[in-house]
Amino acid sequence: MDTTTEVAFGGSQWQTFAPFGIALAIGCLIGLERERSAAHENSGLPGGIRTFPLVALLGCTAAWLGEQFHLALFIALTAGFAALVVMAYFLTGSRGDIGMTTEVAALLTYVFGAMTYRGHWLLAAGLAVATTVLLSLRRILHEWVRKISEQDLYAALKLAVITVIVLPLLPDVDYGPELLRLFNPFRTWLLVVLVSAVGFLGYVGMRVVGPQWGLPLSGLLGGLVSSTAVTLALAGRAREEPRLVRACVLGIGLAWAAMGIRIALAVAFVHWPLLRWLGPPIGLASLTVSLGAWALSGQSRREALDFETKNPFSLWSAMRLAGLFLVILIAVRLAQLYLHESGLIVAALLAGTADMDAITLSLARLASRQDIVSLWAMVGICLAALSNTLVKTVVAYTFGGRPLGHATALLAVFTIVGGGVGLMFTVAALRWGG
């Protein structure tokens, strides 16, 4: 028996009986779930609250016999049990039931029982809990799968290709002139993968939860995809149905807050120390716009408002982001070299009107290389977020009408005030600390 069990239980009696008790508990856990699901899943293997504890106990006993007498006993019992499960599967298959969930669960329970005797009781218990959770989510998982379209599946496969196949083939080397040695194929594509993955997961989350989970969650997930796209989509809904203006304000505000989460994730991935500087302004801006949107929405926050967002991932969008990132990276570096801080500010303001991801990644990358100090990287990202917020306010005015435009302008004020207070807090902390 493994020393882990000895340390955990101590004493010869505990060392002998504890693994069997844990195996029984594991079997009861899985058996309880199988018993509850018996009405929904017709399996020929008699599995429930009694059978599965016995299966786990069999696995533990087989491991004990193999250690005490001969390994052949463990092999024989394991082979016999596996044959019994296979036979049960073929019997149920002959009656038209081709599912094998209960059979696989029984095999896993046997293995977990054997693991407890070998001293891996904590791992066995954790895997048993994970197995039970997966089994209990049967109906929910099937509903989620039905909501994922074929195009979404292809997009996920493309994302996997650029992550697992393309990324490892790219060289991790900086190219370019001495002062502009900024092009690193591996790191550039890695950042593209990161941003694409965040947007894609937000999109999948929106498809999975649907409008019935409420507008707040839909707005947050939509903001992970594109806060500008959410603003445009909800502006159109507000113009078509004026009664939904307050609900649209909540969705837009939470999408803007999610943009802060997206910025924080990108910065943390590229240059973690910068997040200490950027955390207060981005965090307070997200908090104030969320609270402001919540207050402005009133009872409309209970609306199950549905709005369409396109799948954000495609190979073209990934290459576009990579190209835009490099262009902005070089532009910001040149502006900083020849125009100093004033050039960096102008570049950040202009870039923020087009794409927050590219300017955020560019400034974080330059800060990680120490081409610019973290303070100016933080200021640049905040100014880019400011210009991006103003652009989205104009979008809401233009496509959503005056009522939504006025409310969105208030959201912009909340965002700017929160970000400004956070920025002053960071600067004051730096001065006080310095």
From TrEMBL:
Transmembrane stretches, start-end? 12-32, 44-65, 71-91, 121-141, 153-170, 190-209, 215-235, 247-272, 278-297, 318-338, 344-363, 375-397, 409-430
Name the keywords, alphabetized: Membrane, Transmembrane, Transmembrane helix
Q: Which InterPro entries match?
A: DUF4010 (IPR025105), MgtC_SapB_SrpB_YhiD_N (IPR049177)
Segments forming domain MgtC/SapB/SrpB/YhiD N-terminal: 21-143
- Pfam families cross-referenced by the UniProt entry: DUF4010, MgtC
Lineage top rank: taxon: Bacteria
Record keywords: Cell membrane included?
no
Domain DUF4010 residue range list: 193-400
Any idea what this protein is called? Answer: Hypothetical conserved protein
Protein species of origin: uncultured Planctomycetota bacterium
